[in-house]
């Protein structure tokens, strides 16, 4: 089988490997779609995430996958050959309170496919059966792949913000995650204000259903938001762009007792706690992936509300074309780049 490797900084290799054999409790997945993520680019640029060892830095990347169960390991009873599945990226101890609650990403022994374990940018991969997320019959494979990292995370953010048809949400950053946020927020019924410095991304935001578009290079963001919200501010904000500026825009754009869901990774940011929290009673919440037990709810929401996540897949490649796919995604000129298989 073919598999992608990142042997050194900004170097992609597609290698031949034996098809892995599922161990006890595992299944073999024949891949159908595997999306590139900004986290893949951290490894592409030689940055280490999740305390990788040197050996782990050479594994196959890919943590937004979808495929078909090809073979069962010993003791597998919950899935069967031929099942169409997305894959939950987190591996945990299985017995701590976080794992038992479904928040595997919070486990002290958390491991992530594509980082500590071989991931999905390959023709086949093995995974514990409990990481298999059954796809609704009407969900295609690209949508299935994008329903995990993008769909699941943004659904969770919208749910925690309590968005509904009476509310206005601002989404700061209209890359793949922000675009997914637009689709999800509209699915919850909210009016959406989309903010980005790139007018092409704002054009897509409009196509995805955003009600208002703001480019901070062309107009005053807060003045525009006050006009839209009749001087009250937004009910909630989703931040998918890193750094101090996007976060401060969000905190200043929401009304009193409003909430901000922070998704963008950022090592540090400077804010004004007194004026943005204490005297406004606002809430800032971290949103990282989704609770595994919520998958059926998320998948049904996407199908029943016709959330067209596949619209944010701008480019598809075969796995043999990985050397083209990574630099293209790294250019920032695309939305989601997805490897696909027939």
TrEMBL record:
- The segment(s) forming the Alcohol dehydrogenase-like C-terminal domain are 176-303
Metal-binding as UniProt keyword: yes
Cofactor(s) essential for the protein: Zn(2+)
GO MF terms here are: oxidoreductase activity; zinc ion binding
SUPFAM superfamilies membership = GroES-like (SSF50129), NAD(P)-binding Rossmann-fold domains (SSF51735)
Q: Tell me, what's a Pfam family for it?
A: ADH_N
Q: Where is the Alcohol dehydrogenase-like N-terminal domain?
A: 24-137
Keywords carried by this UniProt record? Metal-binding, Oxidoreductase, Zinc
Q: Which family does it belong to?
A: Belongs to the zinc-containing alcohol dehydrogenase family.
Name by which UniProt lists this protein: Alcohol dehydrogenase
Q: Which organism is it from?
A: Sphaerochaeta halotolerans
């Amino acid at each position: 089988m073919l598999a992608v490797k990142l042997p050194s900084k900004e170097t992609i290799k597609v290698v031949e490997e034996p098809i892995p054999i599922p161990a006890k409790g595992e299944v073999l997945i024949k891949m159908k779609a595997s999306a590139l993520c900004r986290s893949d680019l951290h490894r592409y640029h030689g940055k280490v995430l999740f305390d990788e060892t040197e050996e782990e830095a050479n594994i196959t990347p890919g943590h937004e996958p979808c495929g078909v169960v090809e073979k069962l390991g010993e003791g597998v009873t919950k899935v069967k050959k031929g099942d169409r599945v997305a894959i939950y990226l987190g591996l945990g101890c299985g017995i701590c309170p976080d794992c038992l609650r479904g928040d595997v990403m919070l486990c002290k022994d958390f491991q992530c496919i594509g980082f500590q374990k071989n991931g999905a940018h390959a023709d086949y991969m093995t995974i514990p059966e409990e990481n298999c997320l059954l796809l609704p019959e009407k969900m295609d494979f690209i949508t299935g792949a994008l329903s995990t990292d993008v769909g699941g995370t943004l659904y969770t953010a919208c749910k925690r913000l309590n968005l509904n048809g009476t509310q206005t949400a601002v989404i700061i950053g209209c890359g793949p995650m922000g675009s997914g946020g637009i689709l999800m927020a509209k699915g919850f019924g909210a009016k959406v204000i989309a903010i980005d410095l790139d007018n092409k991304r704002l054009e897509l935001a409009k196509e995805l259903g955003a009600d208002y578009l703001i480019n901070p290079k062309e107009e005053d963001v807060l003045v525009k938001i006050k006009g839209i919200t009749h001087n009250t501010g937004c009910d909630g904000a989703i931040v998918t762009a890193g750094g101090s500026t996007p976060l401060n825009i969000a905190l200043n754009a929401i009304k009193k007792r409003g909430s901000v869901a922070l998704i963008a990774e950022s090592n540090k940011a400077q804010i004004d706690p007194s004026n943005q929290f204490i005297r406004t009673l606002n809430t800032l919440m971290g949103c990282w992936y989704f609770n595994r037990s919520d998958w059926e709810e998320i998948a049904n929401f996407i199908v029943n509300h016709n959330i067209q996540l596949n619209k944010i897949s701008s480019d598809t490649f075969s796995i043999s074309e990985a050397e083209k796919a990574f630099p293209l995604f790294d250019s920032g000129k695309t939305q989601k780049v997805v490897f696909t298989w027939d």
